[in-house]
Design goal:
single chain, 93 residues, 0% strand, extended, membrane, 68% helix, mainly alpha, transmembrane helix
Length: 93
């Protein structure tokens, strides 16, 4: 693969195998659904610690910035929400 960068090579190989990657903007999902997400996190028994919502709000403020920290904060909040929703609504627990 002379003259190709890694991203181009990965796309060519992915297309050859018939696979297509999928990505989404977790930051916008979190921001657009902020009220419901925070309620779900607050209701979860896994996170019953003092200062939780202070930390969640701090991460929201970080998400409004730029750079890798903003993207990481969005992904982390989304993962905390998914775990909270699973724990709160799972019929197997």
């Amino acid at each position: 693969m002379n003259g190709l960068n890694f991203s181009d090579a990965k796309k060519i190989l992915s297309d050859a195998l018939g696979k297509l990657g999928f990505s989404y903007d977790s930051r916008s999902i979190v921001l657009q659904n902020w009220e419901g997400i925070t309620k779900e996190i607050e209701r979860c028994a896994l996170w019953k610690q003092a200062g939780l919502m202070k930390m969640v709000n701090r991460m929201k403020n970080r998400m409004n910035g730029a750079g890798w920290g903003a993207a990481t904060a969005g992904r982390l909040l989304y993962r905390i929400y998914l775990l909270s929703a699973w724990y709160n609504k799972s019929k197997y627990l």
